[in-house]
# Entry
Amino acid sequence: MGRRGETCGAVTGAFMVIGLKYGKAKAEDDAARDKTYELVGEFVARFKDRHGSIVCKKLLGYDLSNPKEGEAAKKKGLFDTLCPQLVRNATEILEEIL
# Structure
């Protein structure tokens, strides 16, 4: 997200979906918080099983916060090949756990 090379945008999007479905609607709803944390943990475990990490620079092998590395990732076509696969896998995992 934002060329920071930190948490993969597909992973962050999945976290948002989990939060929208199960997150707290009321401050005192600790059960909703606990369910959200449980599902985020499950998502992370499954994503890491498939890809080894949830960190963009580890997934791509390039640090997008470095313009030269970002350009190298672009030239290698990773945004057109690997990133869509990561989004697909994130979606599949969400379908499995929700």
In short: The radius of gyration is 15 Å. Helices lie at 9-22, 30-51, 56-60, 67-75, 82-97. The mean pLDDT is 95.
